[in-house]
Amino acid sequence: xxxxxxxxxxxxxxxxxxxxxxxxxxxxxxxxxxxxxxxxxxxxxxxxxxxxxxxxxxxxxxxxxxxxxxxxxxxxxxxxxxxxxxxxxxxxxxxxxxxxxxxxxxxxxxxxxxxxxxxxxxxxxxxxxxxxxxxxxxxxxxxxxxxxxxxxxxxxxxxxxxxxxxxxxxxxxxxxxxxxxxxxxxxxxxxxxxxxxxxxxxxxxxxxxxxxxxxxxxxxxxxxxxxxxxxxxxxxxxxxxxxxx
Length: 245
Description:
Layout: E1 2-3, E2 19-20, E3 28-38, E4 46-52, E5 58-65, E6 69-71, E7 75-76, E8 78-84, E9 92-94, E10 97-100, E11 106-114, E12 119-128, E13 137-143, E14 148-153, E15 157-159, E16 163-164, E17 166-172, E18 180-182, E19 186-188, E20 194-201, H1 220-244
Parallel strand pairs: 3-11, 12-20
Antiparallel strand pairs: 1-2, 3-6, 3-7, 4-5, 4-8, 8-10, 9-11, 12-15, 12-16, 13-14, 13-17, 17-19, 18-20
């Protein structure tokens, strides 16, 4: 402020005092973060950064869209560290520590992320109830944007590495009758998500064992009755033939 900012000198030898006041302002500067994504078909995502002072206190947070530059507000002169939150492998921040030393200064930081195709994971859970092979190892063929073969132990869950998003079909090699695979196909559509496929083999009874009908002899009495009846019928046929002769 300048008070007064207009004066009239009206008397010879007169002195008029003007008071000029400046509010005190700390010397300050700004940081600008330029965000770059490399690779073909980079999607132009938004990324978040924290700016911390020498006391490791967060003094500002910036969200920057790939291909653009964002600035902080005025910061006191000093040393600052810039960190990208949830940065992917290979991301760089240059420089990641800066010194604001001049009033009104702006320092630009370049943050670069290598482009990564959106990907997900496929998990295969194997369930086997009853005999045989309740603890066996089973072979699965997986077909889709990337095809491969894996083995899964009964009672375990196998999880893939990162796979391209898309539709995958899981089939069990030599699957028994009644085996189920859910879901089929499995669709990876969310970046970073895992979809679980449950492969279940039904309970199988041991071969050659007939179910019991009660009593200690099981089905033996009924088998004996059937044999006797069959023999009686054959005897009647033979006798009738002899009579006709």
